[in-house]
Amino acid sequence: MELKRERVREHLLTVIESRRPGDAIPSERTLCATLGVSRPTLRAAVDELVATGLLVREHGRGMFVAPDKITQELVAEHRAADAPRSRGDWTSRVLALRTVRAGARIGRRLAISPAAEVVHVTRLRHVDGAPIALEHLHVPADLVPGLTAADMEGGFYAHLRERRGVRPAHAVQSIEPTVLSEEEAALLGVPVLSPALLFDRITSDANSRPVEYVRSLYRGDRYRIVSRLALGDGAPGDPAADAARGGTWWGTVE
Description:
254 residues, 11 strands, single chain, alpha+beta
């Protein structure tokens, strides 16, 4: 059964790759006849591709190729300043902006007292109008007095540099799989417990002072990460090879 399902999956992937996003694929009846498999076998393979964001099933209409995933490249640290952004028209909507006490957990990440104030911004990020990520951003309040939702619209790092005299210089970011809660799923327009990527990032200035802590959830069905790696046999002095040997790879951010 497992081998048969893998054969069905490979056929479906071939069909998907030959079509454009939004195109219909053959009906279950047609696919079962073509592949000589039962409907439960076919549906198991289809369910997997729906869960991973390659197919969309619409009740009463059929199955369609899903929209392209938003792809983000990981690049060497020395190229971060001019790294390519993921494609699409990115916009953000601030859901909440408030000043609160840092508390022990956020205080540790920002290297400030738990009693110190931070500005906590929650925003929903869209690509081409579709919700892609839910972001929780924390900044020491004394760095951004009077921060407003409008200040976030042109890119937060640009705001820090141009309006606050704060120059983000480097960041440490981790990425791990997770699932979405009921509230998170509702905001991102997906079912509860849908897969997601959890980004956890601390950004510092040139003096290694933490200036931002961000926790972001990206939809697993619409977002993927691609890394470019230079192998250790690169020419001596090759920055890309040196970066790869040192493990200094991180994602582009805004």
